[in-house]
Each structure stands twice: as structure tokens, then as C-alpha cells.
């Protein structure tokens, strides 16, 4: 075979007169280019490491300080106040150096020390400035004088053209809230959910905890906050994600969709080639620190992105039950999109059958964790199974070339529902759920991502996905026939099949994992729809926060659907702090409950005032969560400390066992602003979603797309007789319209008396 011959780096023949070596010039060239590329990468990483290490100063500023100190030697002005003379007199081997040499060395050493001192002074000044959060509590559109001064100082001390990791050392640490504040906010959050007797019992538990056990636990937590960069994130990752033994499919992993209205090409291999190449470009920028930091109202924030494996040179592709290894480099460079298309097309054209046990092998990652761990030790710890498993786990990411078309289609009912379920769980054996993410390519050219949750939260993956889609559509592009641009290199070595030897006992474990995962997947009741009646633009004209507007609509929908209020989870980011991840906003407040009850009463006079009061309360809760004064992460860490110390706390046990029957999250859009959606309104992403958190509750992800569209992803369980995702979607839409009607003049009865119109996948149902 030609590819096998080209893969041989050298040949040799033993002759009577010696050994005859024949070296492949192509292979030697590739080895040389790979070495050059590796050294270039190391040099760039070293340079960027230096730039980030001395930020907010620059290496050139060191030379300025040195020149200033050297100049003082000639103008006879001692800027060091005698320190350079002290250094000069204490230099080692000073008797062997001339006076001038010692003077120059002392000036350089003092200048370097002064330069480092100034760097740390600037850095801690910037950290102190970034610890100020008063600006976030100011009314929208208004800025106090103190905030204006603060903003000018931040810009002045931030330097120019920061790299991705430049602000890492300047971000403040997440503060530990006081126990009194946390308990007060907690009791306030559960008051609308408990009757008087239940609330009094909770008050007694909280009071007992505060008086007898809280102080010891709080001291330990404060000590950890001094030692660790973030007192929450490592425990959150370990105990919420990594130590769980239940399946991560549906329960933990989440998904992100492709562009809603545009499919750049309908050729599966070509689309995958462009997207994979764009991912490699993103990874290269990430590794080199060349991505710009994420900004929030002119404040640069560190992008939280964990890298456990860097510079992986291959990916693993799954297609019709077979695993293929594809190398991503040739000649010291990334494969071009056209070369990747060729490789993926070869896999699509491959008609070989799966090996015994190979078809549903990935179901081990979809089922319960203990059987997978036991099977890993018993069947995948040696031999070719270990080699193949290592190839999967060390791959840059996992790619599935699916064989069933998916995507949003206005002409098809429930197309978003099917698309979401495919991304969330697929067939339960065609995604490797343990990988950081599985890229999914469909035969009609649509794409999507299934993401393992422990390493990053949705905004981080959304940041990457925005870059990839923009690069795919507006920079790489396609030919008129839909192929990737560029020459086709047919001399690339073919993708190689991963080999497995899976005994019958292991196949039984795989089947058991598959059946348990399929039961979970079949129970997911999903409904997705596009709310196009109005969007962020109209909500802002009502002088209220779009997020608060939607959250109050969710509370109204929840009450209409279940006739009771429930504990509600909304995810908030804490990226203003070093290694920050998330905090919980408890959206079901007393103010929200009062507003919902007013909406259901016949008296309409106070509805708008109650809405504004509830919206302001929600905004304040969100701001507190963002600025480190949330409730749940503090209580979670106190609970972990209590377990370490063997302290029994009925209060903490009660708090941590409360179910979140309504779990919500907003996935941000347009983080990078690479595409002007006013100019290209069809190039918008459908957002993403997640599975239900409670057996009898809802999971709701919503994405505010531009000015006139909001997408909703709703999940629940068929096994619950109390929930119905489609029904809840109807309640959400009705609630959105009812709240919007509050802002119309009283004599305009159109919206309040209008028939309910439900927009499902582009069709209107009266």
C-alpha cells in the first residue's frame, strides 16, 4: 500500500559488504520542520510568559530604569540614596573588578530590584482597583464621579495590548463572606418557600449553627482563602464533578448548537475540516496566550480555561461503530482544511465493520462510573486496549461523524427537540462523554458540541465556539462546490483504525452501561423553541434588565405550571476573581412571589410597580453573586470543612439537600463581536442546554440573541407525571407576553386580550 510505504522513515538491506541504508527525504524533511515548529512554539511561549510575568510593565521598561540609574553615575546624583554604594561594596570578588565595573554592576542590580518592586507595586495597585465593585451596583446609564475616576485609573494601570494571561496575577481573590451575612441572605431566600412553622424551624437550625459551629468552620475557610488562589473552585470541581458516581451524560454534560439559519456547506467532511482547523487555530492562540482577555464593561477578566493536555497532535474520530486516529500535523504545521476534509472523507468511505465489542464501547462513559472504573482496570490497563484507550484520552478532542441529519428546520416539527437530544446524549454510545468535548458532525453539514462540565463552564466553551463559527464562515470559507478551499493532498497517510480485543465479559459490562444510559436518555423530555415576538431591544426600552425580565417570566410560568413556588437556581459567573467559576442566584425571592401573585389576581393596579421592585431585587442578588457575596458556594465550602473536621451540622445538611426544581442558566452571546449580527442577522447560534437537575423539575437554558430573538431550551423527565417540557414552554411564552403587556398604555388592550400565539420551530399555532 502506498501509504504504508510512505510511512517508513528508512529501509536497510544487509549485504556481504555491509549494510545499505536508504533514508526517506520526505520523512527527514518532516522531522526537521516539526523540530523547527516546536522550537518556534517554545520561543513564542517563553516570550509571552515573560510579557505576562512582568505585566503591567514591559521588558523595555527595565532598560529605561537601567539607563536612568546609569545616568546618575555620570551626573553625580545618587537616586538610590546610598543603596548602590552598599551593593558595590558587597559584590563578590570585588577586588578583581575595577571601580567602574563595580559601579555599573551595582547600578544594574539596583535598577533591576527597583524595576521588580515597581512591577509588584503596579500589580497590587491594579488588584486593589479591581477589588472595587461599586460600579456594578450603580443604575444603568448612570456613572458616579468615583466610578469615573476608578475607571480612568484601571485603564491607566492596565497597560496596552494585554495578553490572555496578563491579568492573572492582578485579579483579586474571591472573598469569604461573613457567616451572619450568608445566613441572613439564606433565610431571606427561603422565606417565600416555607410556611411559618417550617421557617421557624429553619431559623432555629440556622441560629444553632451560627452560635455553636460556624466560627470554627469559618476560621478554617478563611485560612484556606489565604493559602489557595480560590477557596471554592478546587472543591467545586472535585466534589460536584469528579467524585460523583452517577452518569455524567445528561446529568452533567451540556451541549451547544450550530448556526440556526445558515449551513455553510452540506458536505459533512468539508464542514468538519474547516471547523477542526478553526479549533486548532484557536488552540494555538490559547497556548500562546494570544487571545485577548475577556472584557466586562471595560474591565479585563481572565478567561478560565483549564488545560490538562496541551499540544496534542492527533484526534480520534468515531464513525459507524469504528474508532480512527487522525494526525493533525504534517511537515511541522497543522493540516489544512482541505487535507482534513480528505482524511474525514476517507473515514466516511471506509466500509469496514466494527470489531467485537467496539460498536457500543463508548457507552462505558455514558453509564455509571463504578462499572466503567472497574472495567478500565480489568480490561483496558494493558495491551492493545490500553494503547487504543490512551489514543482516545490523549487526543486533542473527540470527533463523531454522525450518520443521521440534524439541525433547526422551520419546515419540520420538533426539529430543535431532536437536534438537542442528539447533542445531549446521541445514541448513548457515539460520543465519548469523558473527553473535554465531543465535536459532532452531521451528514447535512450541521455541527454541534457535547461538553464535559468539570473543566469549564458554558461561557468559556461559548467563547471558543463563537471564534470557530466566525472563522469557519468568514475567514476559511468554501468553494462553489462546497469543498474546503486549498489544494488536495492525496499523499497523506490514511487514518488508522484503533484496535481492540474486548472479551465477552467486557462486552456484557458495555451492554449493561448502554442499557442504563439509554434509560436515562429515553427519559429526557426536551422542548426547544425560538421566541421571536420581541427581544432584548424592546425589554431595554422598558428600562429593565433582560435577564431579570426573563427570570420573572420563568417564575410566573413555574407557578402557572405547578401552582407552587420552588427553589430556583440561576448560574452567575465570578470571573472578576482569580480562578473564579460560578455562583448561584436564588431567583425565587419574596418580591418575585408578590409580583407573580399580583399577575394571577384580578387587581392590576400594582403589577408594574411590583415587577420593577422584583426586577431590582433580582439584579441586586445577581450583583452580589458576581462580586463574591453569594450564598451557596460559601455554604457548600462550610459543609465540606464540616465533613473534614467531623462536625455534624443539621443546618448545613438541610441546606445542601434541598432540591433545585427549577434550574436556569443564560449562555452569553457575542462575547467576541467577530460577526456583526445587524449586518449578518442569519449568522446566529442556537445556543445550548442541559438536562433536568431534579427528577420532578425543569432545566431551562435561554440565550438572548441580538435585539429581537430569545431561544429557550427546556428539559424535564417523561417519568415525572408533574412536568411537561412543551407545556412549560407555552407557559413561558405566555408569561413573556403578559409581562411585556404591562408596559403598554392602559387603554391598549391588544396584548392582554390577544389570543395566545405559540411559535414552535417557525410555525404559529393559534
Distinctive features:
766 residues; alpha+beta; eight-stranded mixed β-sheet; six-stranded mixed β-sheet; 22 strands; 46% helix; 14% strand; globular; disordered N terminus; disordered C terminus
What fraction strand?
A: 5-15%
The separation of the N and C termini measures 64 Å
Q: Could you tell me the radius of gyration in angstroms?
A: 30 Å
Number of helices: 25
Mean pLDDT: 86
GO cellular component, one term: mitochondrial outer membrane
Pfam families: Carn_acyltransf, CPT_N
GO biological process, one term: long-chain fatty acid transport
Membrane topology: Multi-pass membrane protein
Topology:
Elements: H1 2-6, E1 10-15, E2 18-23, H2 25-53, H3 59-75, H4 83-89, H5 99-130, H6 145-157, H7 179-190, H8 196-212, H9 214-227, H10 233-242, E3 254-257, H11 268-287, E4 294-296, E5 299-301, E6 314-319, E7 322-327, E8 329-330, E9 333-334, H12 337-349, H13 369-379, H14 383-393, E10 398-401, H15 415-424, E11 437-441, E12 447-451, H16 458-476, E13 496-497, H17 504-522, E14 524-531, H18 536-541, H19 546-562, E15 568-573, E16 582-586, H20 590-600, H21 607-626, H22 632-645, H23 650-656, E17 662-666, E18 688-690, E19 698-705, E20 709-717, H24 725-741, H25 750-753, E21 758-760, E22 763-765
Parallel strand pairs: 6-10, 10-11, 15-17, 17-19
Antiparallel strand pairs: 1-2, 3-12, 3-18, 4-5, 6-7, 7-13, 8-9, 11-12, 14-20, 15-16, 19-20, 21-22
Helix pairs in contact: 3-5, 4-5, 5-6, 7-8, 9-22, 11-12, 11-16, 19-20, 19-21, 19-24, 20-21, 22-23
